[in-house]
Amino acid sequence: MTDSPDAAKLADQVAALVEAARKAGADAADAVAVRARARGVSVRLGKVEGTEASESDDVSLRVFVGKRVASVSATATSDPKMLAERAVAMAKVSPEDPFQGLADPTLLAAEPSDLDLFDAAEIPTDRLKDDALAMEEAALAVKGVTNSGGAGTSAGLGGLVLATSAGFLGQYAATRFSRSASVVAGEGTGMERDYDFSSCLHFADLDEPADIGRRAGERAVRRLGSRKAKTGPVTVIYDPRVARGIAGHLAGAINGASVARKTSFLKDRMGQRIAAAGITATDHPLKRRGPGSRPFDGEGVAGEALTMVADGVLGHWFLSTSAARELGLVTNGRGARSGTSVSPSSTNFAIEPGSRSPEDLVASLKSGFYVTEVFGQGVDMLTGEYSRGASGFWIENGELSYPVSEVTIASNLKEMFMRMVPASDIDRNFATAAPTLLIEGMTLAGN
């Protein structure tokens, strides 16, 4: 986590939990301590609306008795013996699960890498406040902005210590800093709201407060005078801010747990073409300073960089130990801790950029819809059906012509992936990233 007495204490606690589980009758066990620290400041109209600070140290213990498994969680100060006895008693009356168990010891991270995820800088609360006020001031200075939705800054860290009865003991910590601003443009029924933000592992990598505020204001003003577009077929270009959602749908569809449960529309497509030729999607857990990086997964396995989709062909699922066993495969180090459970998850997942610039994609269309925001939950991961409310800008003769709102775009993700054209831009400051994406053959419901 960090080389501190508190981190060493947490390591001792998880090791004690595993040993207590062994003494209580568990055949195998692993334990995790999770540390979280956060501070934040929010402002609105030049005044501080709130300051927040939180911290927690929680532990969870997972025990295996034969083919039965149970988990318990508590605060880090809880008695290891009591937790272990409770977990073992629960496991003995749980139904058998042939796929549960610790990861193969040969797959464990022997020497976890230092990925530079932790920034030791101490950011004073006054600095957080001043940055929030500066963002809002810059946003309100944009002509056409009439009100503030508020601005906020935060600084925090999260750390994890993992011990297993197979002899693994590892720890790491990652910091996270953020700045965001939201403003309103226009008046009455013609008001529009938009926002901008920056989030990084290292404080010095954040965008400047004035730049974030200015972009938030400009985004809101650009949306003034929006109207519906005509119902019919449409070519859609997704701004990177919403293209990340398309990448997230792809990541969810190739999650091994969903495949094992048969709840993914790509469950039978391994080794087959699922996306257009030229589409590549990667996942890299050991990327230095990566927002989703981790030196080992929630089971102690050292993952490696994978090309999940190569030239449109599906090559891998995201796998934890249990999901892999259910599918007759071997974990690829994508097990993520969530409370007391472990399930597959992506790390630094990206639809890789193409060769054409975003401007070229827009210029190539006589008409189309440039989407900057989607909303609603209209995505069915079992069938791939996709229907979202959307807003953005109408494209006429290769240019953004007027703002559009109150429309719905629809298709099926199977077809969308096959028609996807990535632009050359990508912002890798997100654990799920994508460039600007053009997708033909969608349907727009408007006027």
Q: How does this structure look, described?
A:
This protein is of the alpha+beta class. The chain folds into two domains: 5-219, PmbA/TldD fold; 226-447, no CATH class. It contains nine helices and 19 strands. The chain has helices at 5-23, 80-92, 125-140, 209-222, 240-253, 256-261, 321-326, 358-363, 413-418; strands at residues 28-44, 47-65, 68-75, 145-164, 169-185, 192-200, 232-238, 281-283, 306-310, 313-314, 335-338, 341-344, 349-351, 367-375, 385-396, 399-412, 420-422, 432-433, 437-445. It has a six-stranded antiparallel β-sheet with strand order 3-2-1-4-5-6. The chain has a five-stranded mixed barrel with strand order 7-14-15-16-19. It has a five-stranded mixed β-sheet with strand order 10-9-8-13-18, covered by helices on one side. A hairpin with a 2-residue loop joins β9 (306-310) and β10. α3 (125-140) runs parallel beside α4 (209-222). The protein is globular and about 70 Å long. The model has no long low-confidence stretch (mean pLDDT 95).
